[in-house]
Write a structure and sequence with these properties.
8-stranded mixed β-sheet
């Protein structure tokens, strides 16, 4: 005979199941038709174990074995005690009628025990992974900077890395490969078998073709890609390398700097799966070869995370607008493909099967199997490294949202994904990318639905409300972490993400179609890639345009203190926003003010800040350690002399000055701090021609200029002494280099184009980076007498100590301007040069101290203003 309490429980259980059955019956018996509000409260029991495992992994990676063992054993003992006590309570309660009236007796104890078990598992996993870095001979060899012969298995795709320009030329280009060292041979003949994770660094030797480097044709100078870039994961190579300690720790035991980078010695072929994945990825790259530069670079990144073609300036634009997640493999990539099977998000909450599967007559189980196969193929093609596995897990969570429409059941799914991934790879617990991924997914599952409902209640259209809520929620949770990484807060992140959202899906779907068809039907793949190039190009345009806006972002403390401050500011902004939503006119006014702060239209900026000053004749942009100057030639028109090292900075400067038409761009010489910003000058402006020096060195940078000009159909000419030009009220004469081909400069600096400029009575002398030998030769040249008594001198070579006193005395400028980067390592401007100019009576200003500079007036009205 059943006890009274048991009967009560059974009856209530029957009622509960009956209600649930009625809900599904009302929806036609289909699981996806269940409305989120009809589900039970959110189940958060898995959240504490996942967070505990995450924190334990982050701490225990560096812990000593004794600490790991003690933590694991202690947690397991405590978990056993808790479960024993719970079983005892249940046994005693079972003998007392009417006591067990709850559905989940003792669940707090179960949750606590689960937390302890997960902590123990995380401690063991982290301890074992941490031991991998200390195992074998490499850590000790790294401390001695020893040279070894190592056999390593590649575990990632090779990455071509070129650091940003910080001086006359970029740092050497290198290929980076993650690998596991399997065998080490030292110079004393000892051979050790091991398995140690390392980072291999291979300096790439740029090799010119047999064509003359001085040829004017861009195609006459070519580079063969490094054979290291063709290596696939799972390939085994044998290298002679110097072992050095890692710079910032992390998940590698050492860095191998390969000594002979020309041709890798392959001792083991890649696996069949990796060969197939490599063939697919290579086919996608070939299919995109004919696209516009931005689409050609971006499409492989959108589809499979292949960012090899992404230029540094495009990458920076994506970071400035918080669109960098589109360049990495993420759960959204997989979700978009799986939606084709399941259906669009808008319908998934009502009926789960709205995709291709029901139209093709595929059953639920078969659909699930196909989804699993797609996920497996996604992991193989995009490489099974932790970031891709994280993306697959997040994609599976999103698939669950589309398939069931039960958002409240997704928090446990996300917690499960976090727990399993952290146990699989504890290094994810210290990964900013993993943290951002989890925060973004959590925002989409918790905040976004509520914010979307609130917006719909205020008559915002459904699709717009969902998109706006998703972008805002992800930005609100991720912004503090992004601020730690970049020391900057983007003000255009939400609108930029909204603008690219509708383009990501077609670009990804068409890109995957091109990927799948490329090995068998390349013409079809190229046609698909051409179609995908349109949305991909749109995404790049949004990123570039957003990054170029003067108020695209604000500097913020790049620390966890700054992150906390930003989180508090975000909360305060959200609370204020809730009140503002009740007053549409105030919302509109705030939106207009924010738009003006971001766009900063030149007329309004001039009124508010006084920059640029009315009637400016010459402007020196603040582009860091480099040169970028503008000569005013009419309303919205200017001659640009040099482009600086950063396209974003020079583009922003030109926008602030209101320059939309450029009859001529003069690049004084081909050092990167003068030409690397050229894409920013050409972006969105009418450019008549580019004029350069005849000395085509460095060759790599000369090729870059010709390539950028050819892509935009801008002719390239060469300057020579004696050439005179005029546009509007602006005229100038080239005074260096000489036209005589027999005069060979000592280097690129001495081949700089020097200009003597006249602007309505104002005389300016722009010397590029001329060194003393060329400066003395300039004094002796036919143009020497013309240099006497100029009004403004653009001091040569960023105000370095290498100046010819004779030229400075001949010029005798009233105003000397120097372009140099703050805290640069070159000592520019040199104190001796500044003192010499001031001794001649010149006013000396520099961008590292005074920011951007603009010259106004002439004669007695000569003036200068800073921004």
């Amino acid at each position: 005979m059943r006890e009274e309490g048991e009967g009560y429980d059974d009856r209530r259980d029957e009622g509960r199941h009956g209600t649930r059955a009625a809900v599904h019956a009302a929806s036609g018996g289909r699981l996806g038709a269940a409305h989120p509000r009809q589900e039970g409260p959110t189940d958060l029991r898995l959240v504490p174990p996942a967070l505990a495992a995450w924190a334990t992994s982050a701490v225990m990676l560096d812990a000593a074995p004794a600490w790991v063992t003690g933590t694991a054993v202690g947690c397991l003992v405590l978990a056993g005690v808790l479960m024993t006590l719970r079983v005892g309570r249940m046994s005693r309660a079972g003998r007392v009628p009417g006591v067990m009236t709850g559905d989940r007796p003792g669940w707090p104890a179960v949750t606590a025990a689960a937390v302890l078990v997960c902590v123990a598992a995380a401690a063991v996993s982290a301890g074992l992974h941490g031991a991998d870095l200390r195992r074998g001979p490499l850590p000790a060899l790294a401390e001695r900077y020893a040279t070894v012969i190592a056999e390593a298995e590649i575990t990632s795709d090779p990455r071509l890395v070129r650091p940003r320009v910080r001086g006359p030329a970029p740092a050497p280009t290198a290929v980076l490969l993650e690998a596991d060292v399997r065998r080490v041979e030292t110079r004393d003949g000892a051979t050790v078998v091991t398995r140690t994770p390392v980072l291999m660094v291979v300096d790439v030797e740029r090799r010119r073709s047999s064509s003359s480097a001085s040829s004017s044709s861009a195609s006459s100078v070519g580079d063969r890609p490094s054979p290291w870039l063709a290596l696939l994961p799972s390939t085994r190579v044998r290298v002679t390398a110097r072992v050095v300690p890692p710079a910032d720790g992390g998940d590698i035991a050492a860095v191998l700097r390969v000594r002979d980078p020309k041709v890798p010695e392959v001792v083991g072929e890649p696996s069949a799966a990796q060969r197939l994945a490599g063939r697919l990825r290579a086919g996608l790259r070939e299919a995109t070869d004919g696209l516009a530069p931005d689409a050609r670079a971006l499409l492989p990144g959108l589809v499979v995370g292949d960012t090899a073609r992404i230029t540094p300036e495009l990458d920076e634009a994506f970071k400035e607008t918080d669109l960098a997640h589109t360049l990495a493999v993420s759960g959204s990539n997989l979700t978009i493909i799986l939606v084709l099977l399941v259906g669009p998000p808008g319908l998934a909450q009502r009926v789960e099967r709205r995709g291709l599967a029901p139209r093709l007559g595929i059953s639920l189980r078969t659909t699930a199997l196909l989804g699993g196969a797609l996920t497996l193929g996604f992991v193989i093609v995009c490489r099974p490294d932790p970031s891709v596995l994280r993306a697959a897990a997040c994609g599976a969570v999103a698939l669950l949202a589309l398939a069931t429409g039960r958002r409240r059941s997704l928090i446990p799914a996300l917690a499960t994904a976090v727990l399993l991934l952290v146990l699989y790879d504890p290094w994810l617990s210290r990964s900013y990318g993993f943290l951002l991924s989890v925060l973004a997914t959590g925002a989409l599952l918790t905040l976004a639905p509520r914010w979307s409902a609130a917006l719909r209640a205020r008559r915002v259209p459904l699709r717009l409300a969902e998109a706006l809520a998703a972008a805002a929620a992800a930005q609100a949770l991720c912004a503090p972490v992004v601020a730690v990484l970049s020391a900057r807060v983007s003000l255009v992140a939400v609108p930029c993400n909204l603008l690219v959202e509708f383009a990501i899906a077609p670009a990804t779907v068409l890109g995957f179609a091109a990927l799948a068809t490329a090995p068998w039907a390349m013409p079809v793949a190229k046609a698909l890639a051409w179609c995908a190039g349109w949305p991909a190009g749109w995404i790049a345009d949004v990123a570039r345009t957003g990054a170029a806006l003067p108020g695209a972002g604000v500097d913020w403390p790049g620390s966890w203190t700054g992150a906390v401050l930003l989180a508090l500011a975000t909360v305060a902004l959200l609370l204020a926003g809730r009140r503002l939503l009740r007053h549409p006119w105030w919302c509109g006014a705030c939106g207009v003010l924010l738009l003006l702060a971001v766009v900063q239209p030149p007329p309004l900026t001039r009124v508010v800040t006084g920059w640029p000053p009315p009637g400016w004749r010459f402007a020196m942009c603040d582009v860091g350690q480099g040169d970028a100057t503008v000569l005013a030639a009419g309303a919205g028109t200017g001659v640009v002399v040099d482009a600086g090292p950063d396209p974003v900075l020079v583009d922003r400067c030109l926008r602030t000055l209101g320059i939309t038409r450029i009859p001529l761009v003069v690049l004084t010489h081909f050092h990167a701090d003068h030409v690397a910003g050229l894409p920013g000058v050409l972006r969105g402006r009418q450019v008549g021609a580019i004029e350069t020096t005849a000395y085509q060195e460095p060759v790599e940078q000369a090729e870059f200029v010709r390539r950028e000009a050819a892509a935009r159909g801008v002719p390239v000419t060469r300057a020579a002494a004696g050439e005179e030009r005029r546009t509007g009220g602006l005229s100038w004469r080239v005074v260096w280099p000489p036209a005589d081909a027999a005069v060979v400069p000592e280097g690129p600096n001495d081949a700089s184009v020097a200009l003597l400029v006249r602007s309505a009575g104002l005389r300016l002398l722009l010397l590029g980076d001329l060194e003393p030998p060329a400066q003395r030769a300039l004094l002796r040249s036919p143009a020497g007498p013309l240099l006497a008594g100029v009004d403004v001198l653009k001091v040569a070579h960023h105000g370095s100590a290498y100046q010819d006193p004779g030229l400075l005395s001949r010029a005798a400028p009233r105003l000397a301007l120097i372009s140099a980067g703050a805290d640069n390592t070159y000592g520019h401007p040199a104190p001796g040069t500044v003192a010499a100019l001031r001794a001649m009576g010149a006013v000396v200003l520099s961008t590292d101290r005074d920011g951007a500079l603009a010259v106004t007036g002439a004669g007695a009205e000569l003036g200068v203003a800073g921004d």
